[in-house]
Amino acid sequence: MQDVRVDRWSPALGAEVLDIDLGALVRRDDDDRIGLVYDALIEHQVLFFRNQGLPPDAHRELGVRLGELAPRHHSYATLDGHPDVAVLDWLPGIRPDASEWHSDMTFRAKPPFASILKAIVVPPVGGDTLWASMYSVHDALDPGFRADLETLLVDHDPGQFRNGAYEAGGNAGIAEMHARAGGAVWPIISHHPVTGRPYINVSESNSRWIIGLGAAESQRILSYLFDMINRPEHHVRLRWQPDTVAIWDNRATQHYAVADYTQYRRTMHRVAVDTDRRLEQSIAAHAVRH
Ligand SMILES: O=C(O)CCC(=O)C(=O)O
Asked: Ligand 1: which of 91, 107, 129 to mutate, judged by most atoms within 8 Å of the beta carbon?
C-alpha cells in the first residue's frame, strides 16, 4: 500500500496530508489507510487536512478508529446529540481559554493520546493555532541541565479552568472542579511510548510545582522551560479554513490557540481519543525499524 502523501510545514513538526478524505476512510472502513494516517501522526506529531466534510458522526467514528474515546470534558459543552464531540465556541467579546501552551488534560491520570479538531466557524483573519514539539524542546536543552531534570517530577493541575469554576460556584465551585478534574504527577522528561524518544512534559497551563523543591526553585526551573517552549524553532502554525481538520499526538506536543480574533466568532469541534489502539503493534513496528 502506498504511503500517504504529506507536505512538511516545519522542521520541528507538522505536515499537511494531501489527497485524503477522512470521512471516506471512515465510511469505507479503510483501516489500512487509517493506519497510514496514524503512522504519519507518529512521525510528524501533528497533521493537517483541508476541505474535510467530516460530519459529527464521522468525526466521532474517526476517533473510535484511533482508540477509545475520552470521557466527557469536565467544562466544555458538547454538540446536541453527540456527547463525544466537544464544542469550543468563542463568541465575539468572549476571551478564549486556549491561548497558552498546553497538552490536553495532562491533569488526568490518563490524558488523551490524540485530539481531532475541526474548524466550523473561522474568523476572517486571526485565530491560528500553533503546535510545539516537546522532542525538539528536549533536544535543544543543555545536556548538563537535562541531566539535572532527569529525576524530577512535576505536578499538573486544571490551570485556568479554575476561572469558570470560581465564577460559577465560588470556593465550593473550585473544590468541586478539582475533585472532578483531578491532578497528576509526571516526569519532567517523559518518554514517548511508541518512539521511546524523551520529551519535555511541563506546560505553562498545567504545571504548577516540581515535587520536592521549594516555590522559588520550582518556579525558576519551570519558567525557564516555558521560555524554551515559546521559541519559534520548535513550532508550526496553522491558518484555519472552515473544514480544516488537525489531528495531533497529545503525548509529545503542546498547542496554543492565538486569541487575536475576539471581535469575531470562532467555533471548533473536538473529539479526544484516550487510548492508542495501535500502541502495541506500533511499538513493535518501531522497534524493528530502529
Ligand atoms: O481552538 C484551538 O485551536 C485549540 C483548542 C485547544 O486548545 C484544545 O482543543 O485543547
From this structure: 129
